[in-house]
Design a protein that fits this description.
mainly alpha; about 0% strand; globular
């Protein structure tokens, strides 16, 4: 009996000692070094981003005035207005997002919810990931050949928007697909178990739960559109005329802000180049803020 009691006490002591050795904090040199490197990398990355944005805004904002924002460039008047470029950029963003978003979300829903997991799905996913890494100049060459020549759209906003639609589709598909995968399987099983149809389950449960990921894919796509220049030079052209009509302008050539920035920088107009860069940054911030506000409002309604 005494031996049994002693054995129990020894076992309890070992458990306490083992638990203490597992949970106690033991400072090791390489843990400190690794933690310091992680913090340094994070601070360096954020610092570089903040520094770059601050430099662009500091150099560009002093050269932004109402004349630049409200006029079009003119060699005779020696003006460097960017109003047509702002309008063309908004045209390209709206058209590309309106076309690519429903197609990309629909493809992601099919791949994740309807298609049987197998070689074909893996091939489509691999292809989408590969398309994300193709240089934009190749998309521009394809858009110029297919949309500009074969479909006879020539240099136009339509041609540029359709080309950028193909460019951003892989981003929307893969990001939305990953967002759909984060929804627990119990949600699907529970909805189908109480008699809901698959489409009703997707529309009322899966899509609302994955809304933040879908919004993220749209924001990433807008960033890709705003910063694109190589593909648009081949497709949308370098026109700087103001729109004569809401829809008729889609068939005309139109340079976006990034294309105009490239042209002015190549000619040595650094002041106006930084002003355009600052306008681009402000537009991206405004669009991201608007999408976040829409996302928060939709989430409050759920």
């Amino acid at each position: 009996m005494e031996n049994t009691a002693q054995a129990i006490r020894d076992t309890y002591t070992r458990i306490q000692t083992s638990h203490y050795s597992i949970t106690r904090k033991k400072i090791r040199p390489y843990d400190v070094v690794l933690k310091a490197l992680i913090y340094f990398s994070a601070v360096l990355t954020v610092g570089m981003l903040v520094g770059m944005l601050a430099y662009i805004l500091i150099k560009g904002i002093p050269h932004i005035n109402w004349e630049i924002l409200s006029t079009q460039p003119s060699t005779l008047k020696k003006t460097f207005g960017i109003l047509p470029n702002i309008i063309n950029t908004l045209y390209i963003i709206v058209l590309s997002i309106l076309i690519a978003t429903p197609i990309g979300i629909g493809a992601a829903i099919y791949l994740n919810e309807y298609a049987k997991k197998g070689r074909l799905v893996r091939l489509i996913e691999f292809t989408a990931e590969s398309l994300s890494g193709i240089p934009s100049i190749i998309y521009g060459l394809f858009g110029f050949t297919f949309f500009g020549i074969m479909m006879k759209l020539s240099y136009s906003i339509w041609s540029g928007a359709l080309t950028l639609t193909i460019m951003i589709l892989p981003i929307i598909i893969r990001t939305t697909q990953e967002a759909l995968k984060t929804v627990p399987e119990l949600y699907r099983e529970g909805a189908l178990g109480i008699g809901a149809t698959k489409w009703y389950m997707i529309r009322t449960i899966i899509l609302p739960c994955s809304l933040p990921g879908i919004i993220t894919s749209v924001i990433l796509s807008i960033g890709r559109i705003v910063g694109e220049s190589a593909a648009l030079i081949f497709t949308a052209g370098i026109g700087t005329n103001l729109p004569n009509g809401l829809f008729s302008h889609l068939s005309s050539s139109g340079a976006t802000l990034s294309v105009q920035l490239y042209q002015y920088a190549g000619k040595g107009y650094n002041d106006i180049s930084f002003a355009i860069a600052a306008v681009l940054v402000i537009i991206v911030f405004a669009i991201n803020l608007l999408t976040r506000l829409i996302q928060n409002r939709l989430q409050r309604k759920k």
